[in-house]
C-alpha cells in the first residue's frame, strides 16, 4: 500500500511470486478435478521408474490415487522395467507404437518429470505427449535448467521456460515456476505478469536473479575461495540445482 493509502495497480507488472512445489501440484490436481467433474482421470507418467536416487521425488501414482481414488487409471512408462513401470515404452518412438501399447483413449493428465534431459529427441517426445493428451487435457513437465551431469542412461539437454514453450507448441502454459533441488527444501518461484507466465525474452533479467536466490552471494564467495583446492565438488556445490516446471493445457 502506498503512502497515500490507495491500492497500487500492479497490472502489467513482472513479478516473482514465492510458492512451493506442494502448492503448485495441489493446484494442478484441483484444475484436473474441476475439468473432469465426477469422472476419474486417465493419467500417464513418462519416465516412471523409481530408483534409490529418486527417494526424495514425489510419488505421482500415490498422489493421484489419494486425490481421485483407487479406480484412477494410472499408467507408468519407461525405457527399462522397474518399480512404477507398467509398460516398457519409448516416448520418442513412433506414435503408432505408443497407441498400440497405450490404447486409443487419450489421457487427461500426462506427467513428465526429469526425463526430457535424457531424451535423444525431446521435440519428438513433446509432440507425442501432446498427441496422447485429450483436447483440454493437462501436462506437467519438470526438467533441469541447472544441474550436474547425471547419465541415466545419458544426459543431453537443459531447458529454460521458453525452451519448453518451443517444444510444446500445442499447449497453453497456465503456470511456470522454478524450484531448487535441496533435500527437504520445498521452495519455488513463479515469474509472471498478470497471473500468467511471462514467456517473453524481457523476463530473462529477472530469471537470472533466481540463481542467486538458490545460492546467495555469501555461498558464491565461499565456494569460489575454495575452488583452487577443492575442484571435484564444484560442479555440485557451486552450480545451483534449479528446475523448470510448467503446467500446460492442450488447445
Give me a quick take on this structure.
With 251 residues, the protein is α/β, with parallel strands linked by helices. The chain contains eight helices and ten strands. 30% of the residues lie in helices and 27% in strands.
Give a count of the beta strands, DSSP E runs of length 2 or more.
10
Radius of gyration: 19 Å
The count of domains is: 1
CATH superfamily: Vaccinia Virus protein VP39
The helix/strand series, from N terminus to C terminus, equals EHEHEEHEHEHEEEHHHE
Instruction: Please summarize the sheet with the most strands.
Output: 10 strands, mixed
Q: What best-fitting shape do the alpha-carbon axes yield? A: globular
Please give a structural write-up.
It is globular, with a radius of gyration of 19 Å. Strands 1, 2, 3, 4, 5, 6, 7, 8, 9 and 10 form a ten-stranded mixed sheet that branches. It contains eight helices and ten strands. With 251 residues, it is α/β, with parallel strands linked by helices.
Characteristic terms for this protein:
251 residues; alpha/beta
Map the helices and strands.
Layout: E1 14-19, H1 21-36, E2 42-46, H2 60-68, E3 73-78, E4 87-88, H3 95-102, E5 107-113, H4 122-132, E6 133-146, H5 161-167, E7 171-180, E8 188-193, E9 196-197, H6 204-214, H7 217-225, H8 234-237, E10 242-250
Parallel strand pairs: 2-3, 2-5, 3-4, 5-6
Antiparallel strand pairs: 1-8, 6-10, 7-8, 7-10, 8-9
Amino acid at each position: 500500500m502506498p503512502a497515500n493509502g490507495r491500492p497500487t495497480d500492479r497490472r502489467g507488472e513482472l513479478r516473482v511470486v514465492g510458492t512451493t512445489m506442494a502448492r503448485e501440484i495441489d493446484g494442478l490436481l484441483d484444475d484436473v478435478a474441476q475439468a473432469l467433474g465426477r469422472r476419474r482421470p486417465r493419467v500417464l507418467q513418462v519416465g516412471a521408474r523409481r530408483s534409490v536416487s529418486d527417494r526424495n521425488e514425489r510419488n505421482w501414482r500415490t498422489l493421484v490415487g489419494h486425490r481421485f481414488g483407487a479406480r484412477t487409471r494410472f499408467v507408468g512408462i519407461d525405457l527399462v522395467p522397474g518399480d512404477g513401470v507398467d509398460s516398457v515404452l519409448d516416448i520418442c518412438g513412433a506414435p503408432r507404437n505408443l497407441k498400440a501399447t497405450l490404447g486409443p483413449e487419450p489421457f487427461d493428465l500426462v506427467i513428465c518429470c526429469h526425463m526430457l534431459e535424457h531424451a535423444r529427441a525431446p521435440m519428438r517426445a513433446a509432440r507425442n505427449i501432446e498427441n496422447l493428451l485429450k483436447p483440454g487435457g493437462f501436462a506437467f513437465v519438470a526438467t533441469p535448467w541447472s544441474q550436474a551431469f547425471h547419465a541415466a542412461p545419458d544426459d543431453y539437454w537443459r531447458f529454460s521456460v521458453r525452451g519448453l514453450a518451443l517444444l510444446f507448441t500445442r499447449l497453453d502454459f497456465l503456470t511456470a515456476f522454478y524450484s531448487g533441488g535441496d533435500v527437504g527444501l520445498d521452495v519455488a518461484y513463479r515469474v509472471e505478469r498478470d497471473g500468467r507466465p511471462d514467456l517473453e525474452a524481457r523476463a530473462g533479467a529477472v530469471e537470472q536473479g533466481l540463481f542467486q536466490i538458490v545460492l546467495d552471494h555469501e555461498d558464491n564467495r565461499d565456494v569460489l575461495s575454495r575452488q583452487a583446492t577443492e575442484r571435484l565438488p564444484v560442479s555440485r556445490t557451486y552450480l545451483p540445482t534449479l528446475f523448470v516446471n510448467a503446467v500446460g493445457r492442450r488447445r
